[in-house]
Amino acid sequence: MINNKFGEIVYNESDLCNLILCGQDLTDLPGLTVDSTVDVTQLTQLLEDPGQLLSWKLPVIDALAVADYDYTNQQNWLMPDKYKQLDIAEYVLGLCTNDQELQRVADELLKYQERDLFNLLRYLKYLVDVMHGHNLIWGVGRGSSVASYVLYKIGIHKIDSLFYDLDVGEFLR
Hints:
Layout: E1 2-3, E2 9-11, H1 13-21, E3 33-34, H2 40-48, H3 66-74, H4 81-84, H5 88-94, H6 99-114, H7 118-133, H8 149-154
């Protein structure tokens, strides 16, 4: 979604799909401004039968560079607002129990912030909470991700990279 020159939020197909998947009733949004490329007839059919959303194909935009496509998708994580609003830095720093952990987490968080990956960390926190909530089991850790102490603190893996003196640079290249 973007803001137009009047400050209104303009929704595109992806935004509307995310709202529908999150259970938002679009009729509850007063003054909904939609991108003119959205097929409103098709959207109306989706509102009548949201199950169709699974088979709805969004148009492929050939002119969009891969990096721009990735960035756009990384800004639109499908997760509850509680996690979208989470101050992930404060959360992870709050999990630290000593100065050594605080220093390592602060250093890593700066690297995540430089790469604009805080939304990814929020989503990973959401994913871990969902897996815990449903008693799902996942691996102890794989590959270079175990070099990240922040991911260890969030619960993505069980390898204490601080204890094993693993360089986060192996993960965030």
